[in-house]
Amino acid sequence: MKKGLMYIFLFLVFSSCVQRRVIVVNEKPGADVIIVKEAPPKPKVEIKTKKPGKDYIWIPGHWLYKDGKWIWIPGHWAKKPKKNAKWVPGRWEKTEHGWKWTPGYWKD
């Protein structure tokens, strides 16, 4: 019993010394908040392809932090869900805990 408690104690002590690079917080069911300790790279310059139709809007690319590295998600054309819909791009914001990702969304 004492040996088991000692292992638990040592695990807690050493795991608290490791600085985590990513924090995932669940603010509401199905909506994880991603916070990364390092700033994302600068956005890549993208060349838009020909617009596929009048009801389409360009969704810019963005950086995603996954498995300890930054991955570029390229921009693409998306059909508006409603005639007057506007796309609000996702963004990385500096917070007191690190860089927080806020996903893009459609706005009427």
Describe the protein in words.
- This protein has 108 residues and is mostly beta strands.
- It has one helix spanning 2-17; strands at 22-28, 31-36, 56-59, 62-66, 69-73, 76-79, 86-88, 91-95, 98-102, 105-107.
- The longest helix has 16 residues, at 2-17.
Low-confidence stretches: 4-20, 24-29
SSE pattern, N- to C-terminal: HEEEEEEEEEE
Q: Write down the domain tally.
A: 1
Structural class: mainly beta
Would you tell me the overall average pLDDT? 80
Spell out the key features of this protein:
two-stranded antiparallel ribbon, 4-stranded antiparallel beta sheet, mainly beta, 108 residues
Give a brief outline of the structure.
With 108 residues, this protein is mainly beta. The chain contains one helix and ten strands.
Secondary structure blueprint with pairings:
Elements: H1 2-17, E1 22-28, E2 31-36, E3 56-59, E4 62-66, E5 69-73, E6 76-79, E7 86-88, E8 91-95, E9 98-102, E10 105-107
Antiparallel strand pairs: 1-2, 2-9, 3-6, 4-5, 7-10, 8-9
